[in-house]
Amino acid sequence: DLAIDVPGHGKVVVDIGYGGTFYAFLNAEQLGLDVCSSKTRDLVNAASAVTEAVKKQFKLHHPESEDLAFLYGTILTDGKDAFSEEPTTNICVFADEQVDRSPTGSGVTARIALQYHKGLIQLNQTRTFRSSTTGSLFTGKAVQATKFGDYNAVVVEVSGEAFYTGTATFTVEEEDPLKHGFFFK
Fold it and tell me: Which InterPro entries does this chain map to (predicted)?
């Protein structure tokens, strides 16, 4: 429940969650958008504005490594965070305005942790998450409450379906003088 001033959108309230990386989460309606029907470019622009605003207005902390204390992106949701058998939809905009084709494993992990922390789901209640861009589905559930440093945390299980998108073949030529690698001094 962090209030952030987003240029072009005004004050919004975001949640910051960690599931392998940090994300800002908010209902797309706060930005005047619908995660299920708005144009992807509009969602990407709004999410990127949120990411930049959070980076400028809030300092993240990671209990084990300050190298991990950065906001990777923003996940816009349909706002359906309370437990339901119905899927909840989101779009993950990360890094340099990239859009995940899936609901995002680390994002689903963080979103489940937030829902659990807010009392919106219980342990072992499985939620289904849908990507607004492709319709792909992941499921997730909090399976164990724990601590991470001074923070309340949960162990989360996420599952989905994946497909091969390609293969690679690496060839080493016998006469290559660097075939075994090299070190910088």
Answer: Pro_racemase_fam
Residue with tokens 């497909």: 163
Name the DSSP letter for residue 28. G
**What three-state secondary structure class fits 14?**
strand
CB 88 within 8 A of CB 77: yes
- 137 and 130 in contact (C-beta within 8 Å)? yes
- Taking a C-beta distance cutoff of 8 angstroms, is the pair 82, 27 a contact? no
pLDDT tens per residue across span 53-71? 999 999 999 999 999 999 9
What would the pLDDT profile of 140-176 be if each residue is shown by its tens digit?
999 999 999 888 999 999 999 888 889 999 899 999 9
Please classify residue 161 by burial: count the beta carbons closer than 10 Å to its beta carbon, then call 0-12 exposed, 13-18 middle and 19+ buried.
exposed
HSE toward the beta carbon, residue 99, CA cutoff 13 A:
18
Strand partners, 88: 129
Rounded Cα–Cα distance for residues 104 and 87 (Å):
14
Which residue, 92, 79, 85, is CA-closest to 24?
A: 92
Domains in the chain (CATH in brackets) are: 2-159 (3.10.310.10)
